């Protein structure tokens, strides 16, 4: 196959950008030219890896602090997705379409993130081969994939009732969200494109190939998933190849028993609440040390109130530090979830927003984690959950088992193989 120019477009936090960087690097290693079209915020990071970059104005500038704080507030009312789509994305849809149209000039393939709504319009308008991706199982909105249906003790009749109930709930949600995609439908009409399915839901998926960029341990294909879905495994982007643990953190880890690790990723870290302080107290009362990954320039922790045996760190490569922890306490973002699964360590998930509650449910279902609601989070409740994870052997053994399975997956290779296979099919189709 001749070398191709491939444009990958993404939106969101580092957890959204990293998978596409990992795939872009692999595609370039195979001789292709990869370009990531995303916010100007990530230009330096992407270009530093030798990946092509094209700016796309998803919003005037992603303000991680402002958006993180506001999403933290909205998560209490479960309206964070509405805010992201209606107020961060749709006002800039036309500018995004124009920029992305420029990015795909001369390209052989467009690969889209689930929030890259302009991508489906460009694929329909230009006819460019198109592969869509999904980072989290929740985005398939399956009526068959729920905590109730994972229980083996219910009858087939009860399972059928659960599917009907789940389907009704999802239909109600889609009805409530029907106006979210109005700007896309309007632009679609102006472009002379025929009406299509809802672009926020099934319309986000390519009719040819959808890559589910997560482990089959997290979710397996369901009867109502798109038939063109391929589950690849997590496409890990490991900064550890360029960055190691800081000398201070390395000395801390080497000087005692494995600590409890607390992290909120790159977005929710802007709205931590009592996550770090109560976590440090709980760890100390359990007789464990703690590592607090608080983000660069983010935290306002009262350091003088932190107990002994606690280290505060801006950042550490998850692939390096997670395997050295006793338990990982995190928010359930899919990027962090993937790294934690691969580490083989038990988890406590404190979900904040978006897909995080669903990811938490799946980890509990796997037997590798427990979950604690954010509004119930305190040193006392945290201690009770951590005791189960630390002293009940089944969590550690199950986490190690699942970790080995995830380590055996190669999401980057699987995704790149699928992309190349699709490109070959396009070449063969055009040559006939």
TrEMBL record:
Gene3D superfamilies: Glycogen Phosphorylase B. It comes from the Bacteria. GO terms for molecular function: hexosyltransferase activity; UDP-glycosyltransferase activity. InterPro entries: EryCIII-like_C, Glycosyltransferase_28, GlycoTrans_28_N, UDP_glucos_trans. Residues 303-403 form the Erythromycin biosynthesis protein CIII-like C-terminal domain. The keyword Methyltransferase does not apply. Residues 6-61 form the Glycosyltransferase family 28 N-terminal domain. This is Glycosyltransferase, MGT family. It comes from Coleofasciculus chthonoplastes PCC 7420.
